[in-house]
Amino acid sequence: MKNLLLTVAVLAGLVAGAQVKTVGQDIVEYNGQKYPCHVYEYANASGLVEDAIKERMMRAGNKTTKGARNWLVYKNVLLPGITEAGLSDVYIKVEEQGKKDNVKSTVYLITTKPNEISDERVKKADRSNSAVNIALLPSGVPFLTSMNELVSSKQFDADLKAQEDAAAKEEKRLVELKDDQRKLEKRIKELQDELAENAKAQERQVQIVATEKAKADAMKATKKAPLPTAN
User: Fold this and answer.
1) What is the pLDDT of residue 118?
2) Would you say 37 and 109 are in contact if contact means Cβ atoms under 8 Å apart?
3) Are residues 102 and 192 in the same domain?
4) Structural domain tally of the chain?
């Protein structure tokens, strides 16, 4: 029995461990040159993830600087919550994959000592086929994993707003249906009034027809017979 419980506990631990996302390493291109980077995946849309990163960096007093297209660049900054790592240059790219019902985003993060990466685009002749050998600071790992709470919070807010918008849309439709009902009831009342007036008009018309026919019959009764013709 004790062995069975131990086996179940070990299996549960393995399953739980398998569900935990880890930060990996990859190669990414920035300004025409390849660099090593940390990579992490979120089960959220890229816009939401990018907004969460911007918000967290802004809260820490970090502002973006001009960089390559589709990249967030922060120069000479302290990563939020990881100040012991010291100042660094941070390059972040968020790419979205998947379809609408299964969207996810991959974040590529380069964290280096200040000024290790040039702000200028690398010319083709000077580009290396392999990644540039730069020291990738480990502070990127806890930064990426620590973003989960804010990303989840923003996802909840986005889902809540979407639900509130859906409810508001259906409520507006209900108001429109009630307005249509009032218009239809008004039209029905108008038609009922027209029907009642029509019935009265028919009654009057019956009397008029009867009167006119009676006059015609009276005229027929007074008509003289034609005189005989002479042979």
Assistant:
1) 83
2) yes
3) no
4) 2
Q: By percentage, how much of the chain surpasses pLDDT 90? A: 62
Residue 46 maps to a domain:
yes
**Residue 119 is assigned to a structural domain of this protein:** yes
- Are 131 and 35 contacting, i.e. CB atoms less than 8 angstroms apart? yes
Please check whether residue 36 lies inside any domain of the structure: yes
- Does 15 map to a domain? no
Residue 20 has what pLDDT? 47
Q: What backbone phi and psi angles, to 5 degrees, belong to 67?
A: -145, -165
Q: Which domain holds residue 56?
A: 21-146
Confidence of residue 227 (pLDDT cuts 50, 70, 90): low
Q: For residues 114-142, give the mean pLDDT.
A: 81
Least confident window among 60-64, 123-127, 161-165: 123-127
